[in-house]
Amino acid sequence: MSMSQIEQELHSALPKPTHDELARQQFVRTFKEHIVSDIFPGNRVAYDRRAKPAFEKMHGVEPKDMRDVAKVMNDDPHFKMFSALLRTSQEMMWSSAQLPVQRTLPDLVKTAASITSPLGTLSLNPSVEVPNYHTAVDIHCQPGGYHTEYMEDDVAQGAIYDRAVYLYAMGQLGRNNADMGDSLVSWLKSNAPEISPLRILDMGCSVGHSTLPYSEAWPDAELHAIDVAAPMLRYAHARAEAKEAKVHFSQQNAEKTNFEDGSFDIIVSHILLHETSEKAIHNIIAECHRLLKPGGLMLHAETPPYEGMEPFEVFLFDWDTINNNEPFWRRSHQIDLNKLSADAGFNPENNITEMVPSAYQMAAAERTNTFQGGDFGGGGVWFIYGCRK
Amino acid sequence: MSDDQIQLKRKAKGPRPLYFNDPDIDRLLAMLMGLVGEVCVIRDRLDTLERLADKHNLISQQEIEDFVPSEEVLQERATLRDTLLGEVTRVVSGDIEDLQNLQLMTYENAIKQVEGDH
């Protein structure tokens, strides 16, 4: 089964692939679709028919948590093949996104650096340290991570990321990979209509996929977006300008920014928290508390916490922790969010934890209803964690 | 690829997880999928050629579909395919050839023979 092949919206900062480079990328997308639609569902069958009975025979009880499930599933031939194929598809995805960038890098850098009369701004700060949760392993297997630079004014990692995210999500984040931003905007408009923000901050923005929807929703607000990685920000700036969006990008760590106390009405992040660490996540929420105006709102889009899921679902959902260079994935899905808010100075009674429908309704009928397992965004909903100051 | 082209890092930092009892199978699977990918790239390119040929009234897609190979063409194609398969499965038939060769000495003996040949 293949999903409809809606393509990414082109813009001047995005590298233009050759015929075969594009074919290689399209292959990865189809390969991923095939894994999700045709191979992933077999894990449930393998578990119900083979692995779970084997566990019950051995221990006399049902598997009680993901560790129990892992004891039998990690050796299951179908799960092993699924995992090996999914990991391979991830590596091929990055490779296919890298090739056009490697071929055209000096031109991409030149294009990004030659913006005339920009609407927004870009401020880089080379003294910002790339935190160890970025450098321990390359996050979600992108060779070189978010931060590696190959030449002066480099944009390579951003250009690769922009395309790879589209392939990764198989188009399910929309033509501009904007679904998470769109979904939060939609939530804010219906759940917090009284906020007409003067200043908005997007933390951990990477190339700004989720940032731009805020510029469309509140064109008069001052929109800031921060990240630790310079090549992402240079590309984000070029991309935003190409799409005529006014965004102020700056190189800062969300744990400790240089913005003033109480200076934002809305602070958002999109799949940032699970890429950090135990210490960093606490610092980030505390920084949100410091930066918000009284009555202001922080919202973080993530995938749902493990709590309440059945052991087998948790086991599958946890795949990325071990298999996709996401070392904080597991722990970040188990954190007590009331305590996290309280530790940061928020009143946990104001906590928001809910599932938000994906704004990308057009593809709703094609959702595979799996989270991860190769279909990030396939659930058709996002989990939001937030709090009002 | 030009010599002055910047080389990006091609391996993500972090050890690659292994799934099979023999790590060589993990590597072979990755190579196999790489090959399937390249086959699809060729298939796409061929598809482009067919569509362009059709568009420019050189060969219509229908003409390709309707093409009935003669027995002579079938024979030529079978020979080409057989050659290809022979190359791909060379290692398998090589093992059998060794088994059949009664004169075959062990490699260690071959070393001893040439070293002692003075």
Layout of helices and strands:
The complex is a heterodimer of chains A (389) and B (118).
Chain A: H1 19-39, H2 42-59, H3 66-73, H4 77-113, E1 121-123, H5 132-135, H6 156-168, H7 179-191, E2 199-203, H8 212-217, E3 222-227, H9 230-242, E4 248-251, E5 264-270, H10 278-291, E6 292-302, H11 311-317, H12 319-323, H13 329-332, H14 337-343, E7 351-357, E8 381-388
Parallel strand pairs in A: 1-4, 2-3, 2-5, 3-4, 5-6
Antiparallel strand pairs in A: 6-8, 7-8
Chain B: H1 23-55, H2 61-66, H3 71-88, H4 90-100, H5 107-115
Give the key terms:
heterodimer, A: 389 residues, alpha/beta, eight-stranded mixed sheet, 14 helices, 44% helix, globular, B: 118 residues, mainly alpha, 5 helices, 65% helix
Give an overview of the whole structure.
The complex is a heterodimer of chains A (389) and B (118). The longest helix of chain A is centred in the N-terminal third of the chain and has 37 residues, at 77-113. In chain A, 53% of the residues are buried. In chain A, helix 10 (278-291) links the parallel strand 5 and strand 6. Chain A is globular. Chain A has an eight-stranded mixed sheet, with helices on both faces. Chain A has 389 residues and is α/β, with parallel strands linked by helices. Chain A contains 14 helices and eight strands. The mean pLDDT of chain A is 93. By secondary structure, chain B is mainly alpha-helical. Chain B has helices at 23-55, 61-66, 71-88, 90-100, 107-115. Chain B starts with 22 loop residues before the first helix and ends with a helix. The chains are: A alpha/beta (389), B mainly alpha (118). Chain A binds chain B through residues 19-20, 23-24, 26-28, 30-31, 80-81, 83-85, 87-89, 91-92, 94-95, 98, 101-103, 105-106, 135-138, 141-145, 148, 150-151, 156, 160, 322-323, 325, and chain B through 5-14, 16-17, 19-20, 26, 29-30, 33-34, 36-38, 40-41, 44-45, 48.
